[in-house]
Amino acid sequence: MTSALHQITMGFSAEDDRLLLRISTTEKTEYQLWLTRRFVHVLWSALIRVLEIEPAAKTGSVPAAKKAVMAIEHEEALSAADFAHGHDEGNENLTLESGPLLVVGGSVKPDKGGLTQLTLQTQNGAEINVALNKNLTHALCKLLVETTAKAEWGMGLAISDAAALIVPTDKTQVH
């Protein structure tokens, strides 16, 4: 993929027990990719490591503070995203003849420009490269959280809730 990213959406196919990731470009082309439970587990860990880089710089190595900062950044990033809009139709589906491509590997790497480079390798040898800014990385995480929950995969994916980390759960405690 060489053109700019336009839209990412995700759904679940119960029949195939896979997530369908749809990536469209500003040039009105689209890739459809199957994500397995096993791949999502690995992808999630890599995405979280990338997201932890910036909060770690702001808060040092205190785990609770790092999680709180990451949760706040997650909420801020999601407030700028449009999840109500369905996937645009009329794109040229580059996987129409083969059907969705099965993702079997890939990488998630931060680059020096503040982007996250997501590379998805497919079973047939194709490689899809997507550059995600911080907001899009958080949006992809939200899609994974929601879609794996709908799939009932029991993965428990979550970006920590900032309020839960900051507000004590024992309301009788006074400091």
In short:
With 175 residues, the chain is α/β, with parallel strands linked by helices. The protein contains four helices and seven strands, in the order βββααββββαα.
Can you describe what's shown?
- 35% of the residues lie in helices and 28% in strands.
- The chain has 175 residues and is an alpha/beta fold.
- Strands 1, 2, 3, 4, 5, 6 and 7 form a seven-stranded mixed sheet that branches.
- Strand 1 and strand 2 form a beta hairpin.
- The N and C termini lie far apart (55 Å).
- 23% of the residues are buried.
Characteristic terms for this protein:
7 strands; globular; disordered C terminus; 175 residues; seven-stranded mixed beta sheet; single chain
Write the layout of secondary structure elements.
Blueprint: E1 5-13, E2 18-25, E3 29-35, H1 37-59, H2 63-79, E4 92-93, E5 101-110, E6 116-122, E7 127-132, H3 134-150, H4 162-166
Parallel strand pairs: 3-4, 3-5
Antiparallel strand pairs: 1-2, 2-3, 5-6, 6-7
Helix pairs in contact: 1-2, 1-3, 2-3
Helix/strand structural class: alpha/beta
Helix amount = 25-40%
What average pLDDT do the residues reach? 81
Could you give the distance between the termini?
55 Å
Strand content range: 25-35%
Number of domains: 1
Number of helices: 4
Total beta strand runs: 7
Radius of gyration: 17 Å
Please summarize the sheet with the most strands. 7 strands, mixed
Query: N-to-C SSE series?
Result: EEEHHEEEEHH
Approximate shape: globular
Provide the low-confidence segments as ranges.
162-175
